[in-house]
Design brief:
GO biological process, one term: translation
Number of strands: 4
Protein name: Large ribosomal subunit protein bL32
Family: Belongs to the bacterial ribosomal protein bL32 family.
Largest sheet: 2 strands, antiparallel
Number of helices: 1
Organism: Aceticella autotrophica
Strand content: 5-15%
Shape: rod-shaped
Strand order of the largest sheet: 1-2
Keywords: Ribonucleoprotein, Ribosomal protein
């Protein structure tokens, strides 16, 4: 069975692991109601997307 010849340094180990971290989702403000929403999605608060009302939201 193969065995490493040298100990892997902390820097080399962490360089390998740095990209697997979870990222926070990006939020943008809705241009109509200024509530935070996910980009390229219909606003759940007002129902607008791309300056058009896509769904009716009861207030």
């Amino acid at each position: 069975m193969p065995v490493p010849k040298r100990k892997t340094s902390k820097a080399r180990r962490d360089k390998r692991r740095h990209s697997s971290k979870l990222k926070l989702p990006a939020y943008v403000l809705c241009p109509q109601c200024h509530e935070p929403k996910l980009p390229h999605r219909v606003c759940k608060n007002c129902g607008f997307y791309n300056d058009r009302e896509v769904i009716k939201v009861e207030e």
